[in-house]
Amino acid sequence: MHLAATRIFTDDLDTLVTFYEKATGISAARLHPMFAELRTPSGTLAIADSATVALLGDEVAEARANRSVALDFMVDDVDATHRALQGVVDVFVNEPTDMPWGNRSLLVRDPDGNLINFFTPTGEAARARFANQDHR
What InterPro entries would the database entry show (predicted)? Predict the structure, then answer.
């Protein structure tokens, strides 16, 4: 099995796509006016207009209702990312913080309120775990 993508449904596709492009430095592929993808070597973040939910079934998803999932983006330097996100991110949940499992993390919220964790592995075990992955 292969996880193909993580998808966010939103009522404001253009705002959310622009936010993720600025926050990650990745240009989105706009496959349809109601759908975009930000592709990385390790996974894809898909963003779909909430109008597409009706195609999946009655009320199977709801924009701006997530409080149980975080999106994790590994970066080379979380402190530099924190500085770069000034003026892009409205809600910083925390400042860059050293976590006991060997990551330095910065938590923010996207315009829809979804939680995003930008992190840099700092401990030897954490660095080894991510050594072969491509990241920014």
Answer: Glyas_Bleomycin-R_OHBP_Dase, Glyas_Fos-R_dOase_dom, VOC_core
